[in-house]
Amino acid sequence: MKNIAIIMGGYSSEYKISLISGNVVYQTLDKTKYSAYRIHIFKEKWVYVDANDAEFPIDRNDFSVTVNGTKISFDVVFNAIHGTPGEDGLMQAYFELLGIPQTACDYYQAALTFNKRDLLSVLKPYGIKTATSYYLNKGDVIHTDEIVKKVGLPCFVKPNKAGSSFGISKVKTEAELPIAIEVAYKEDNEIIIESFLDGTEVSVGVINYKGNITVLPITEIVSENDFFDYEAKYEGKSQEITPARISDEMTQKVGDIAKRAYEVLKMKGFSRSEFIIVDGEPHMLEMNTIPGLTTESLIPQQARAAGISLEDLFTNAIELALN
């Protein structure tokens, strides 16, 4: 029986969603195959939480836990932390140092994909198209006229390193820019301002399934709000249509691009890339390496459409990490 540590929580605004994802993994895993442990990772504490919600501190020297005098070590870590420190490479590097396999990509890939600017600039030479963008670091002088000249209006102001659409604003007038920039700086000290891409938004899951890099059925996002924001993602303010209402040719094209990105970056585990298709050309927005795993989340929806159950999806991730 393998001991599986499911890490969840994290240090960012996304911790609530991560706890839901982690609990879905915990409830879904085959209990005859694995002993699963819920591990909460927060700034103030790393603890194992048992079935009665009692907490036992994690020994960070070897990532073990002692319960009633018995020391428990883990064979594999299932990473369900969205945002820092689970999606930006910190936990990946820590587990690599300890020699504990984990289900996500390696630390370099995590750090790179978590940084939208750097990810897109690495993929650009491979012919992957992106929005026109303008970068700001905290403390930079803000020239709103210069920004508008480069990216046009409307545009999107985003924190460079944050997920779940926290801190993102759609800006329609130059006067709104400084306010949107302040909102984004609450999440990160680096900002990316992107041109508005008017097209069809799709989300493409790529996973290693049983040793083959597999593109899952694509989801089309139709937001009731101005864009696919937090409410649209988690509070039902969007339609998510799987498979997407795009041609077979376009399905193949955007799938190939997402797969190429996965291969170029030497990814492992789950990935979910967001694209907007404008005039027959997919433009990449970002790649998530710890995508939501709640029952409503996109990767589970896409896996279901491919005939892969949640249990299969999670077992596959663990077995690949172990091998």
Automatic annotation (TrEMBL):
Cofactor, how bound (note): Binds 2 magnesium or manganese ions per subunit.
Originating species: Flavobacterium succinicans
Residues annotated as signal peptide: none
According to its UniProt record, in which pathway does this protein act? Cell wall biogenesis; peptidoglycan biosynthesis
- Which molecular function GO terms apply here? ATP binding; D-alanine-D-alanine ligase activity; metal ion binding
Where is this chain's protein located in or outside the cell? Cytoplasm
What EC number(s) does the entry state? 6.3.2.4
Do you know which PANTHER family this protein is assigned to?
A: D-ALANINE--D-ALANINE LIGASE (PTHR23132), D-ALANINE--D-ALANINE LIGASE B (PTHR23132:SF23)
What's this chain's function? Cell wall formation.
The active site lies at E14, S164, S297
- Membership in a protein family: Belongs to the D-alanine--D-alanine ligase family.
The protein's name in its UniProt record? D-alanine--D-alanine ligase
Give the record's GO CC terms: cytoplasm
Residue ranges that the Swiss-Prot or TrEMBL entry lists as coiled coil? none
A Pfam family recorded for this sequence: Dala_Dala_lig_N
Superkingdom as given in the UniProt entry: Bacteria
Where does the chain bind Mg(2+) 1?
E286
The UniProt keywords, alphabetically, are: ATP-binding, Cell shape, Cell wall biogenesis/degradation, Cytoplasm, Ligase, Magnesium, Manganese, Metal-binding, Nucleotide-binding, Peptidoglycan synthesis
- What reaction does this catalyse? 2 D-alanine + ATP = D-alanyl-D-alanine + ADP + phosphate + H(+)
Q: Which SUPFAM superfamilies match?
A: Glutathione synthetase ATP-binding domain-like, PreATP-grasp domain
Task: Give start and end of each ATP-grasp domain.
Answer: 120-319
Instruction: Tell me the PROSITE patterns matching this sequence.
Output: ATP_GRASP (PS50975), DALA_DALA_LIGASE_1 (PS00843)
